Amino acid sequence: MGHHKLQRFAENLTFPNLFQVGFDKLQAEGFALKGKWHEQFGNDNPITLELGCGKGDYTIALARIHPERNYIGVDIKGARLWRGAKTSNEEQMKNVAFIRTRIELIDQFFAPNEVSEIWITFCDPQLKKPNKRLTSPRFLATYRHFLQDQSTIHLKTDSQELYDYTLNEVLPTEQCEVVFGTDNLYNTDYEGEAKLTQTFYERMFLAEGKPITYIQWKVNQNNNN
Ligand SMILES: C[S@@+](CC[C@H](N)C(=O)[O-])C[C@H]1O[C@@H](n2cnc3c(N)ncnc32)[C@H](O)[C@@H]1O
Q1: For a substitution probing ligand 1, which of 76, 99, 201, 204 has the most ligand atoms within 8 Å of its CB?
Q2: Which residue range(s) make up the domain with 18?
Q3: Residue 93 Cα, ligand 1 centroid: separation in angstroms?
Q4: How far does residue 139's CA lie from ligand 1's centre (Å)?
Q5: Which one of 7, 69, 91, 158 is separated from 44 by 20 to 30 angstroms, measured CA to CA?
Q6: Predicted confidence (pLDDT) per residue in 77-133, tens digit
Q7: Is 48 exposed, middle or buried, given 0-12, 13-18 or 19+ CB atoms closer than 10 A?
Q8: Distance CA 53, CA 119 (A)
Q9: What is the distance between the alpha carbons of residues 34 and 107, in angstroms, rounded to a whole number?
Q10: Is 107 designated active site?
Protein backbone atom coordinates (compact mmCIF):
# COMPACT_ATOMS: atom_id res chain seq x y z
CA MET A 1 0.00 0.00 0.00
CA GLY A 2 1.25 3.49 -0.86
CA HIS A 3 2.79 5.72 1.82
CA HIS A 4 0.27 8.43 0.95
CA LYS A 5 -2.67 6.11 1.63
CA LEU A 6 -1.19 4.88 4.90
CA GLN A 7 -0.75 8.48 6.04
CA ARG A 8 -4.40 9.18 5.28
CA PHE A 9 -5.55 6.03 7.11
CA ALA A 10 -3.50 7.13 10.14
CA GLU A 11 -4.94 10.64 10.05
CA ASN A 12 -8.46 9.21 9.70
CA LEU A 13 -8.06 7.75 13.21
CA THR A 14 -7.61 11.27 14.58
CA PHE A 15 -10.82 12.77 13.13
CA PRO A 16 -13.53 12.90 15.83
CA ASN A 17 -16.32 12.83 13.21
CA LEU A 18 -15.13 9.82 11.16
CA PHE A 19 -16.48 6.50 12.40
CA GLN A 20 -15.25 3.09 11.33
CA VAL A 21 -15.93 -0.22 13.00
CA GLY A 22 -14.84 -3.68 11.89
CA PHE A 23 -17.46 -6.20 10.74
CA ASP A 24 -16.94 -8.59 13.68
CA LYS A 25 -17.17 -5.84 16.28
CA LEU A 26 -20.27 -4.44 14.58
CA GLN A 27 -21.98 -7.84 14.72
CA ALA A 28 -20.92 -8.51 18.32
CA GLU A 29 -21.54 -5.11 19.89
CA GLY A 30 -23.60 -3.11 17.43
CA PHE A 31 -22.83 0.51 16.62
CA ALA A 32 -22.71 2.80 19.66
CA LEU A 33 -24.31 5.81 17.96
CA LYS A 34 -27.25 3.90 16.45
CA GLY A 35 -30.32 5.81 17.68
CA LYS A 36 -28.03 8.42 19.27
CA TRP A 37 -26.93 10.50 16.29
CA HIS A 38 -28.87 13.54 17.48
CA GLU A 39 -27.01 13.41 20.79
CA GLN A 40 -23.75 13.15 18.84
CA PHE A 41 -24.59 16.25 16.80
CA GLY A 42 -25.92 18.03 19.89
CA ASN A 43 -29.21 19.00 18.22
CA ASP A 44 -32.46 17.57 16.86
CA ASN A 45 -31.88 18.75 13.31
CA PRO A 46 -32.79 16.37 10.48
CA ILE A 47 -30.13 13.98 9.16
CA THR A 48 -29.15 13.47 5.52
CA LEU A 49 -26.93 10.63 4.26
CA GLU A 50 -24.73 10.66 1.17
CA LEU A 51 -24.19 7.05 0.06
CA GLY A 52 -20.99 6.22 -1.85
CA CYS A 53 -19.83 9.73 -1.00
CA GLY A 54 -16.22 9.26 -2.13
CA LYS A 55 -14.48 12.49 -1.10
CA GLY A 56 -17.72 13.76 0.44
CA ASP A 57 -18.29 16.54 -2.07
CA TYR A 58 -22.06 16.66 -1.64
CA THR A 59 -21.90 16.17 2.12
CA ILE A 60 -19.62 19.18 2.49
CA ALA A 61 -21.43 21.41 -0.03
CA LEU A 62 -24.87 20.74 1.48
CA ALA A 63 -23.62 21.09 5.06
CA ARG A 64 -22.10 24.51 4.29
CA ILE A 65 -25.43 25.94 3.10
CA HIS A 66 -27.63 24.08 5.61
CA PRO A 67 -26.30 24.61 9.14
CA GLU A 68 -29.84 23.67 10.27
CA ARG A 69 -29.36 20.07 9.07
CA ASN A 70 -26.81 17.31 9.78
CA TYR A 71 -24.95 15.41 7.05
CA ILE A 72 -23.26 11.99 7.11
CA GLY A 73 -21.16 10.75 4.20
CA VAL A 74 -20.79 6.97 3.80
CA ASP A 75 -18.18 5.11 1.78
CA ILE A 76 -15.98 2.03 2.09
CA LYS A 77 -12.80 3.75 0.88
CA GLY A 78 -10.90 5.42 3.71
CA ALA A 79 -8.47 7.29 1.50
CA ARG A 80 -11.37 9.05 -0.23
CA LEU A 81 -13.30 9.75 2.98
CA TRP A 82 -10.13 11.39 4.31
CA ARG A 83 -10.72 14.36 1.97
CA GLY A 84 -14.18 15.16 3.33
CA ALA A 85 -13.18 14.47 6.91
CA LYS A 86 -10.12 16.72 6.58
CA THR A 87 -12.14 19.61 5.11
CA SER A 88 -14.91 19.32 7.71
CA ASN A 89 -12.35 19.40 10.52
CA GLU A 90 -10.35 22.27 9.02
CA GLU A 91 -13.58 24.27 8.68
CA GLN A 92 -14.79 23.12 12.12
CA MET A 93 -18.11 22.03 10.64
CA LYS A 94 -20.26 20.75 13.48
CA ASN A 95 -22.98 19.30 11.23
CA VAL A 96 -20.83 16.78 9.32
CA ALA A 97 -19.79 13.19 10.03
CA PHE A 98 -18.51 10.26 7.98
CA ILE A 99 -18.91 6.50 8.29
CA ARG A 100 -16.55 4.03 6.69
CA THR A 101 -18.61 0.95 5.96
CA ARG A 102 -20.12 -1.15 3.22
CA ILE A 103 -23.53 0.31 2.36
CA GLU A 104 -24.96 -3.22 2.62
CA LEU A 105 -24.58 -2.78 6.42
CA ILE A 106 -25.99 0.75 6.63
CA ASP A 107 -29.12 -0.18 8.59
CA GLN A 108 -26.88 -1.29 11.47
CA PHE A 109 -25.81 2.33 11.96
CA PHE A 110 -29.23 4.01 12.23
CA ALA A 111 -32.40 3.41 14.24
CA PRO A 112 -35.95 3.64 12.80
CA ASN A 113 -36.90 7.21 11.80
CA GLU A 114 -33.40 8.56 12.41
CA VAL A 115 -32.79 9.74 8.82
CA SER A 116 -34.93 11.93 6.56
CA GLU A 117 -32.98 12.27 3.31
CA ILE A 118 -30.50 10.32 1.16
CA TRP A 119 -28.27 11.45 -1.70
CA ILE A 120 -26.82 8.77 -3.98
CA THR A 121 -24.09 10.38 -6.04
CA PHE A 122 -22.54 8.64 -9.03
CA CYS A 123 -22.65 5.15 -7.59
CA ASP A 124 -21.43 2.18 -9.59
CA PRO A 125 -24.39 1.32 -11.90
CA GLN A 126 -23.70 -2.42 -11.44
CA LEU A 127 -24.92 -3.17 -14.96
CA LYS A 128 -24.51 -6.94 -14.59
CA LYS A 129 -25.81 -7.22 -11.02
CA PRO A 130 -29.15 -5.41 -10.54
CA ASN A 131 -29.37 -6.63 -6.95
CA LYS A 132 -26.21 -4.65 -6.10
CA ARG A 133 -27.57 -1.35 -7.43
CA LEU A 134 -28.04 1.18 -4.65
CA THR A 135 -31.56 1.92 -5.93
CA SER A 136 -32.65 -1.73 -6.17
CA PRO A 137 -35.68 -2.92 -4.15
CA ARG A 138 -33.26 -4.74 -1.87
CA PHE A 139 -31.41 -1.54 -0.93
CA LEU A 140 -34.62 0.49 -0.71
CA ALA A 141 -35.89 -2.06 1.81
CA THR A 142 -32.69 -1.58 3.82
CA TYR A 143 -33.06 2.22 3.78
CA ARG A 144 -36.71 1.92 4.89
CA HIS A 145 -35.49 0.51 8.20
CA PHE A 146 -34.25 3.94 9.26
CA LEU A 147 -36.00 6.48 7.00
CA GLN A 148 -38.87 8.65 8.19
CA ASP A 149 -42.13 8.56 6.24
CA GLN A 150 -42.01 10.92 3.22
CA SER A 151 -38.20 11.01 3.24
CA THR A 152 -36.58 12.24 0.04
CA ILE A 153 -34.04 10.23 -1.97
CA HIS A 154 -31.94 11.86 -4.70
CA LEU A 155 -30.03 9.94 -7.38
CA LYS A 156 -27.46 11.70 -9.57
CA THR A 157 -25.83 9.44 -12.12
CA ASP A 158 -24.13 9.47 -15.50
CA SER A 159 -25.62 6.03 -16.17
CA GLN A 160 -28.64 6.13 -18.46
CA GLU A 161 -29.22 2.46 -17.59
CA LEU A 162 -29.36 3.12 -13.85
CA TYR A 163 -31.60 6.14 -14.46
CA ASP A 164 -34.04 4.10 -16.62
CA TYR A 165 -33.99 1.14 -14.24
CA THR A 166 -34.69 3.32 -11.19
CA LEU A 167 -37.35 5.51 -12.81
CA ASN A 168 -39.21 2.91 -14.86
CA GLU A 169 -38.65 -0.42 -13.12
CA VAL A 170 -38.09 0.23 -9.43
CA LEU A 171 -39.99 3.35 -8.37
CA PRO A 172 -43.39 2.36 -9.86
CA THR A 173 -43.30 -1.04 -8.19
CA GLU A 174 -42.03 0.42 -4.91
CA GLN A 175 -44.94 2.90 -4.92
CA CYS A 176 -42.57 5.82 -4.54
CA GLU A 177 -43.66 9.29 -5.61
CA VAL A 178 -41.34 10.77 -8.21
CA VAL A 179 -40.88 14.47 -7.51
CA PHE A 180 -38.55 15.28 -10.40
CA GLY A 181 -36.61 13.39 -13.04
CA THR A 182 -34.46 14.42 -15.98
CA ASP A 183 -32.16 12.50 -18.30
CA ASN A 184 -30.10 15.65 -18.87
CA LEU A 185 -29.84 17.86 -15.81
CA TYR A 186 -27.86 20.66 -17.44
CA ASN A 187 -30.39 20.88 -20.26
CA THR A 188 -33.19 21.83 -17.88
CA ASP A 189 -34.01 25.06 -16.13
CA TYR A 190 -34.37 23.14 -12.85
CA GLU A 191 -32.57 25.13 -10.16
CA GLY A 192 -32.50 22.81 -7.15
CA GLU A 193 -29.69 21.27 -5.10
CA ALA A 194 -28.84 18.73 -7.80
CA LYS A 195 -26.99 21.66 -9.35
CA LEU A 196 -25.37 22.74 -6.08
CA THR A 197 -22.00 21.14 -6.76
CA GLN A 198 -20.21 18.83 -9.16
CA THR A 199 -18.51 15.90 -7.49
CA PHE A 200 -15.09 14.52 -8.39
CA TYR A 201 -16.67 11.81 -10.58
CA GLU A 202 -19.27 14.14 -12.05
CA ARG A 203 -16.55 16.44 -13.33
CA MET A 204 -14.87 13.48 -15.03
CA PHE A 205 -18.12 12.33 -16.65
CA LEU A 206 -18.91 15.88 -17.82
CA ALA A 207 -15.42 16.14 -19.34
CA GLU A 208 -16.24 12.96 -21.30
CA GLY A 209 -19.37 14.70 -22.61
CA LYS A 210 -21.81 12.45 -20.75
CA PRO A 211 -25.23 13.86 -19.81
CA ILE A 212 -25.96 13.81 -16.09
CA THR A 213 -29.31 12.37 -15.01
CA TYR A 214 -31.19 13.12 -11.81
CA ILE A 215 -34.22 11.69 -10.01
CA GLN A 216 -35.77 12.86 -6.77
CA TRP A 217 -38.45 10.77 -5.08
CA LYS A 218 -40.35 10.37 -1.82
CA VAL A 219 -40.46 7.18 0.20
CA ASN A 220 -43.88 6.32 1.53
CA GLN A 221 -43.44 4.07 4.55
CA ASN A 222 -47.14 3.15 4.61
CA ASN A 223 -46.77 1.35 1.30
CA ASN A 224 -43.96 -0.79 2.62
CA ASN A 225 -44.84 -4.38 1.79
C1 LIG B 1 -17.89 6.28 -8.70
S2 LIG B 1 -17.50 6.66 -7.04
C3 LIG B 1 -18.40 8.16 -6.74
C4 LIG B 1 -17.85 8.92 -5.56
C5 LIG B 1 -18.51 10.28 -5.28
N6 LIG B 1 -19.91 10.14 -4.93
C7 LIG B 1 -18.37 11.18 -6.48
O8 LIG B 1 -19.37 11.44 -7.15
O9 LIG B 1 -17.23 11.66 -6.74
C10 LIG B 1 -18.46 5.43 -6.15
C11 LIG B 1 -18.11 5.39 -4.68
O12 LIG B 1 -18.96 4.43 -4.05
C13 LIG B 1 -18.19 3.66 -3.14
N14 LIG B 1 -18.87 2.36 -3.02
C15 LIG B 1 -19.23 1.53 -4.03
N16 LIG B 1 -19.87 0.46 -3.55
C17 LIG B 1 -19.93 0.61 -2.19
C18 LIG B 1 -20.47 -0.16 -1.13
N19 LIG B 1 -21.08 -1.30 -1.37
N20 LIG B 1 -20.33 0.31 0.12
C21 LIG B 1 -19.68 1.48 0.37
N22 LIG B 1 -19.16 2.26 -0.60
C23 LIG B 1 -19.28 1.84 -1.86
C24 LIG B 1 -16.82 3.58 -3.74
O25 LIG B 1 -15.83 3.36 -2.74
C26 LIG B 1 -16.68 4.95 -4.40
O27 LIG B 1 -16.06 5.90 -3.59
Answers
A1: 76
A2: 3-223
A3: 23
A4: 15
A5: 91
A6: 999 999 999 999 999 999 999 999 999 999 999 999 999 999 999 999 999 999 999
A7: buried
A8: 9
A9: 9
A10: no
